[in-house]
Structures are given as structure tokens and as C-alpha cells.
Amino acid sequence: LATLAFAVGAQDYPGSKPITAVVPFAAGGPTDKVAREIALIMGKHLNTTIVIENTGGAGGTIGARKVVQARNDGYTILIHHIGMATAPALYRNLGFDPLKDLEMVGEIADVPMLLLGSKALPPKTFKDLLPYVKTNAASISLANAGIGSASHLCGLLLQSALKQELVTVPYKGTAPALTDLMGGQVNLMCDQTTNVAGQVKSGAIQSYAAMQGKRIDAFKDIPTAAEQGLPGIEVKIWHAMYAPKGTPKPVVDKLSAALQAAVADPGFRAKMAELGAEAVPPARATPASLQKHVAAEISKWSPVIKAAGVYAD
Ligand code: MLT
Q1: pTM here?
Q2: CB of 173 shorter than 6 A to ligand 1
Q3: What ipTM, to 2 d.p.?
Q4: Nearest Cα to 114, choosing from 236, 24, 27, 26?
């Protein structure tokens, strides 16, 4: 009878009850920006409100674990990024398996990364930054959002390419980190364009390089690291949506249908493009596609992380 009752409930899902979307980083940051944009449009398709709840810490794993442990009634979901795929290699006591302990809803958007510096940092070009870092590594601080964050992963790739370890300063998200970068309290940061587009355009921070193989369309004037003598850095931050394990399939399907409509929404696609990001095609906003993607990304990044010899716990 309970199953029947829930099945009926699933048909009426979500009704007028708001849905909580956990964002595992501080408000105002790049993940939060993607989350608020997609939540607004999905809410319209679902005739309800999706409320963002920021739960930062430990590179996104605290917020992710919160959703793993949440009620599987469809009223708590998770919006997270590539950190879902790097955490298994970084956290030996992660406490959950992304592929088994969550329901996949679908992907949302891809976001490129830039290497940024405070205006106070003497090198004004990437070419001058490289020797400067080698000489001053012990006193150069590199901000990130904790082990397992996108900024941490990009920082790992940068330090491996430089063969130089910098002083890491962790934050609960790259929004607070950006404040310190602008204030000169921290020297460098790899961050997603969705967070720094305004500051890069206004010149409030220095942008040294695009951290991928080709220049970023919305930031064509920023050369890639490879173009400036540091090849091999290629990182793109994909964002996706999940629900607690056991969330009824009709509910997951409704969430995914609303997500597919939202990523196809011209307003969402334009907003992402304006911020240097790219909404995924609806075919990637499905549970089956996300399951394959997460598995592939775990396989891709685990050896890179193990080679770097970095663990969070
Ligand atoms: C954020 O939203 O603060 C970022 O995703 C943090 C990060 O992963 O670097």
C-alpha cells in the first residue's frame, strides 16, 4: 500500500513543495552560479521552487555526503562538479561511492578555467610568471576550494607542469578566495570563468593563461598555457545533478526531463556562453549519460591524482 501511495505521490511530484538543491561550495562561486541559473529554469518546468543550500568544505565532499545521506523523496538534490570524480582517489575515507550511492540525474554545463593572479604580483605576463614562480615558490600562495575542488585539481596540474610546489591556501569556495586574490592576500588561483568573468574583464585581477588546449571563446585574448611554454594542461569543469540513492525512478525521470528542458533553454545557454561556459546538449542531461561520464572521469583522473601522490585523508 505504501509503495502504491508513493507511486501516486511520484505522479504528483513535486506538487508545490520546494526542492532543496545542495551546492557543496560557498555562495556566489562558480558552482553556485551554475546552480542558481539552472534551478530557476527547472523550477518553472516543475512548477515549484528549487532552493539552493550552500554546504561548503573539504573540496565539496561534505555537501555531497549530505545528499548521499538525505531522504530519497525527491526533495533534496545535489549540484556538483568534476570533484565528484576526483574525490574517490583523493579521499580514502570518502564514505560513499559516487557510482553506487547516488541516483544520476544528468549533466548541466562545462566550464573552462583560467590561471589568475593578484594585481600586486610582480609578473605581468605568463612568460615572466614561470621563472618568478621557480625562484619564489616557497612564498607564492595558490588559493583553492579545498582538496577535491576544481581549483585544487587545476592547481595540481599547474604544479606538476611547473615541477614546483606552491603554498596552498584552502577556502570554502572560490568566491571567498577571489576576494583575497583581489585584495592581494593570496597570489595565484586557478578558477572557473563563471566566477571571474567580471573581474577579468575589468582588470581587477591578472589573467595569465587559459588552462586548456584552445583559447576560451569569451576570453580570446588570453593565450593558453601551452601557447606560452607550458604544454599539457587540459582541464574543463563539468557540472551535474544527482539525487539520493533510491529516489523513485518516476521522480528522477521528472527531474531529468526538467533538466533537459533547462539546458536547452536559450536563456540558460546564452548566460553560460556569456560567462565563458557551455550548457551541455540535452543528450548529456540524462541519467544514463551521466553514469557513463562519472565512471569515465573517475578512471581518467584517479591515475593522475595517484601519480601526484596527493591524499586528503
Ligand atoms: C566553487 O563553486 O567555489 C568552486 O567550484 C570551487 C572549486 O571547485 O574550485
Answers
A1: 0.95
A2: yes
A3: 0.95
A4: 236
